[in-house]
Amino acid sequence: VLGLVIVGTIGYVVPRLGAARGLTLILASQFLLAALIDQFGLFAATPRPLDGPKVIGLVLVLGGVWLVVR
Fold first, then answer.
1. What is the mean pLDDT of the chain?
2. How far is CA 31 from the centre of its chain?
């Protein structure tokens, strides 16, 4: 189901924002969603709390997204 959402999002976003911006935003969204799924144990996943390296990684990803999208 999530794969269908990703493919549909790519088809919607890329023509409007361009390939680089669109794919950068989609990948960052996947990283953030994966962190939330890990944090709260959604979809019967084993909960793994956010720790320092994960938070630093997410901040760096968001910084990179900001550089690409601005």
1. 92
2. 3
